[in-house]
């Protein structure tokens, strides 16, 4: 029981202190899991982080659920998930419910437009971060070429992003690998 | 069946969003705004603004809130389940295998190959938000707010919650 409570507290703290979405909270998770509660050592944690990154979906909940599971089974997984997700979802619902009452006034239009301009800026910064990641990993020439092709497929031909992503995942697995990269491949 | 739709709307971003929660934002928008038409681009933008000013993972905040708005408590539960469970189950089942292959260039580039798609989707989303702002308050106001908020959040590391609050006040009084 104590273990479940510790798991809950650890991920509750991470959820409440991590601003900027899941990826921003990874160092906080490491602090709780490796330094404070010593459920894993640094190497194990970086292994877990590496595999979480090769899978799709929100990274914070993957880490929370997986670590909770490793530390204390299914119950641990539930504790960590509830702690990392529920508090902020409830806060968001309360906040927006409270605000929705005022949305009929005229001056709210100006508020909405101003806020949306800020959110657009945040999305543009994220866009740049994703392009940089791709540029560093794939090389800039390939990244620019791929970005143009993806733009045509998604925005001009209007193919569902799911189909495009599935095709790219298959390509990532079957395309030949350059010989100097092969060292890591287990035989 | 609304519960099935909620499941689909958050299952697809959960299983395709390579690059963590932020990568699933445009995929959620694709389902919630374009496919199921539960909200407008503008409403989605407002939701993101408030979600970003609160702590915690962004993908699950969106899933929980939109699920709740569309289908009550059950809807919230289904939205959260759909966005968390698929990737977590994969991780628990495949964890051992993936640790063995973590240095394989093929496994490494899975995430990498998807990044340009996510970048395009995010870029289009940014463009749509600016377009909404432009229709509401014109070019110069939009441009000034974008530049100032960029400077404060990205260069001065001011907390986004303050900037969102500031934008609300400015928009409410002057626009």
UniProtKB/TrEMBL annotation, chain A:
A GO CC term attached to the entry: plasma membrane
Membrane-protein topology: Multi-pass membrane protein
Subcellular location: Cell membrane
Keywords from the UniProt entry: Cell membrane, Membrane, Transmembrane, Transmembrane helix
TM segment ranges: 7-29, 49-69, 81-99, 111-131, 138-157, 163-179
Molecular function terms, GO-annotated: chromate transmembrane transporter activity
Main location: membrane
Entry's family note: Belongs to the chromate ion transporter (CHR) (TC 2.A.51) family.
Database matches in PANTHER family: CHROMATE TRANSPORT PROTEIN-RELATED, CHROMATE TRANSPORTER
Name of the protein in question: Chromate transporter
Source lineage: Bacteria, Bacillati, Bacillota, Bacilli, Bacillales
From TrEMBL, chain B:
Membrane topology: Multi-pass membrane protein
Ranges that cross the membrane: 6-27, 74-98, 110-127, 133-153
Cleavable signal peptide: none
One GO MF term: chromate transmembrane transporter activity
GO cellular component: plasma membrane
Keywords: Cell membrane, Membrane, Transmembrane, Transmembrane helix
Location(s), subcellular: Cell membrane
Pfam families per UniProt: Chromate_transp
Family as reported in the entry's similarity comment: Belongs to the chromate ion transporter (CHR) (TC 2.A.51) family.
Annotated protein name in UniProt: Chromate transporter
Protein's organism: Oceanobacillus iheyensis (strain DSM 14371 / CIP 107618 / JCM 11309 / KCTC 3954 / HTE831)
């Amino acid at each position: 029981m104590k273990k479940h409570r510790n798991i809950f507290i650890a991920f509750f703290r991470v959820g409440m202190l991590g601003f900027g979405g899941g990826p921003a909270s990874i160092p906080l998770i490491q602090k709780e899991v490796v330094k404070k509660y010593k459920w894993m050592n640094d190497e194990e944690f970086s292994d877990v982080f590496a595999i979480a990154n090769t899978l799709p979906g929100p990274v914070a909940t993957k880490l929370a659920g997986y670590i909770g599971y490793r530390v204390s089974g299914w119950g641990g997984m539930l504790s960590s998930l509830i702690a990392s997700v529920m508090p902020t979802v409830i806060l968001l619902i309360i906040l927006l419910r409270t605000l929705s009452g005022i949305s009929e006034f005229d001056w709210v239009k100006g508020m909405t437009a101003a806020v949306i301009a800020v959110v657009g800026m945040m999305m543009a910064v994220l866009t740049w971060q994703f392009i940089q990641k791709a540029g560093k990993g794939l090389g800039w020439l390939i990244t620019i070429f791929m970005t143009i092709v993806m733009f045509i497929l998604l925005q001009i031909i209007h193919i569902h992003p799911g189909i495009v992503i599935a095709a790219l995942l298959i390509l990532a697995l079957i395309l030949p690998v350059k010989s100097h990269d092969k060292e890591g491949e287990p035989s | 069946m609304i519960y099935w739709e909620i499941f689909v709307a958050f299952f697809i971003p959960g299983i395709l969003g390579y690059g963590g929660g932020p990568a699933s934002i445009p995929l959620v928008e694709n389902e919630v705004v374009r496919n199921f038409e539960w909200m407008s681009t503008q409403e989605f933008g407002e939701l993101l603004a408030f979600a970003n000013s609160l702590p915690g993972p962004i993908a699950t905040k969106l899933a929980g809130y939109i699920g709740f708005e569309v289908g009550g408590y059950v809807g919230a539960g289904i939205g959260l389940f759909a966005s968390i469970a698929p990737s977590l189950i994969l991780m628990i089942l495949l964890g051992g295998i993936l640790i063995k292959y973590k240095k394989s260039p093929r496994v490494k580039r899975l995430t990498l190959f998807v990044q340009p798609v996510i970048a395009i989707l995010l870029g289009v989303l940014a463009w749509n938000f600016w377009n909404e702002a432009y229709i509401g308050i014109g070019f110069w106001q939009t441009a000034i707010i974008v530049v100032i908020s960029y400077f404060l959040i990205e260069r001065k590391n001011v907390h986004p919650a303050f900037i969102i609050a500031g934008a609300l006040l400015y928009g409410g009084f002057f626009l």
